[in-house]
Design a protein that fits this description.
Elements lengths: L4 H5 L15 H29 L6 H10 L3 H16 L7 H16 L7 H29 L5 H27 L3 H22 L4 H4 L15 H8 L6 H29 L5 H5 L3 H21 L1 H21 L3 H28 L7 H29 L5 H22 L7
Helix pairs in contact: 2-6, 2-7, 2-8, 2-11, 3-11, 3-16, 4-6, 4-16, 5-6, 5-8, 6-16, 7-8, 7-13, 7-15, 11-15, 11-16, 11-17, 13-14, 13-15, 14-15, 14-17, 15-16
Length: 427
């Protein structure tokens, strides 16, 4: 691969102009609520299901593998579901039927997880929830592209990720206040919140979808794709494709972030001597820091460039892990989670928008969200198992150091992209 070929591959223009103008704050608010609804469930799932699995498995590698495999469903379902949502986006209903029906179905197996009294029943609940929730997860994240102009999407992502950080706060509070008292009630709260908030979001935004859809995203000269696989083939047309390199970076970072989220509660109980509820709340300070800084990071990213901002974020993520390893205590782990969360914020704000900017047509943004899901879901599928296996060979004490070593690969990928691929401004 040559450095000259990379800019050429990434120069494909988007068909819609990168207009900025004024951001549709009302639309962003309701999209934030929709994403908040689904992420509240996922954050609690990642915090508490690993501890549920420890009733049947002692190996961190096996637990990590199971927690990773549930994310792999998105690899198989997202391209088709995302492509179908692109077709629905131009109709009166928009993408909402996929989101609302999927949420209603996913609620059932999630709420039944603490009621499972044996391993087969638990796995049925876990797999059932993951299969359905992964199918509509990317569609919810794509909603912002239907209501916000291309030039404002990076800023909108800042608001969305701020909302996502609140879900970590909610998940941590449920862990701290409810889990040790009633596990059944704790698992009932997140899906109930999801149904209520998605319903509100649809009532105030989805029902007016046809009036709010941006006309500049319906240009007649955009290329047409008849299948989701045609979109994927176009995106990954060569080994030097910046889309492919960006997906590799997303794979690596999402894998380590998912591994930390999945294994932090057992780490807290095994290394720090905390109770299950207390360990589940370790992510709370990092979530608060994420919330306070994600909007400034979103606006700063417009000046730095998205790829460069992600590279700096990975460096801060690694620094945070090293702090936690060097200081194995509750204050040290909290400091580690704060720094790592800030590093992840830079990635979270920019990664999906960077992929959207590489799309050849505004009509396939749902499918390009599927590319993000494929990369992130693959990382989430393998990351916990990889990190868990290193723990089996070393010990829980070395978890943060092992994660830092793997994160260095991510830093190398984003360094390559930031130096050789032209960063496309979104402001």
């Amino acid at each position: 691969m040559t450095s000259d070929s990379l800019p050429a591959a990434s120069a494909a223009p988007t068909s819609a102009p990168a207009l900025s103008g004024r951001i549709n704050r009302s639309a962003v608010l309701w999209v934030v609520l929709a994403v908040f609804a689904q992420e509240a469930v996922w954050n609690f799932y990642d915090a508490q299901v690993p501890e549920q699995l420890r009733n049947y498995f002692s190996s961190a590698g096996v637990i990590g593998l199971i927690m990773g495999l549930d994310h792999s469903w998105g690899i198989f379902t997202q391209p088709s579901v995302g492509f179908y949502s692109d077709k629905l986006a131009r109709r009166r209903t928009g993408r909402w039927p996929i989101v609302l029906i999927g949420a209603a179905i996913a609620t059932v197996p999630f709420a039944l997880i603490p009621w499972a009294t044996n391993l087969p029943a638990l796995l049925v609940c876990v797999v059932g929830f993951a299969a359905v929730a992964n199918a509509f997860k990317g569609v919810t994240e794509t909603l912002v592209s239907d209501y916000v102009t291309p030039g404002n999407r990076s800023k909108a992502q800042g608001f969305i990720k701020a909302g996502v950080s609140l879900t970590i706060v909610v998940s941590s509070l449920i862990s701290l206040l409810v889990v040790d008292r009633s596990l059944h009630l704790a698992f009932a709260i997140p899906p109930l919140l999801m149904l209520i908030m998605l319903g509100l979001s649809w009532a105030f935004l989805g029902r007016r979808h046809s009036d709010t859809l941006l006309p500049e995203e319906q240009t007649a000269d955009e290329p047409e794709f008849t299948t989701p696989w045609a979109v994927l083939k176009d995106a990954l047309r060569s080994p030097s494709s910046p889309t492919l390199l960006l997906m590799i970076g997303i794979f690596c970072f999402a894998g380590m972030w998912s591994a930390l989220r999945s294994l932090m509660t057992p780490y807290g109980t095994q290394v720090l001597g905390l109770s299950r509820g207390e360990a589940g709340g370790l992510s709370l300070p990092g979530a608060v820091a994420f919330l306070l800084c994600v909007l400034p990071i979103a606006y700063l990213s417009n000046r730095l460039g998205q790829l460069r901002a992600m590279r700096y974020g990975v460096a801060l993520f690694i620094a945070g892990l090293l702090v936690g390893f060097a200081w194995p205590s509750v204050p040290g782990t909290i400091a580690s989670m704060i720094l790592s969360s800030l590093g992840y914020a830079s990635f979270a704000v920019n990664a999906l928008v960077a992929l959207w900017n590489l799309a050849p047509s505004q009509k396939v943004l749902g499918t390009y969200t599927a590319l993000y899901t494929i990369a992130s879901a693959s990382g989430m599928a393998l990351g916990p198992a990889i990190l868990g296996t290193t723990i089996d060979f070393t010990s829980w004490r070395y978890m943060l150091l092992n994660a830092a070593v793997f994160a260095c690969v991510t830093f190398a990928v984003f360094t390559r992209l930031a130096r050789h691929a032209p960063d496309r401004a979104t402001a």
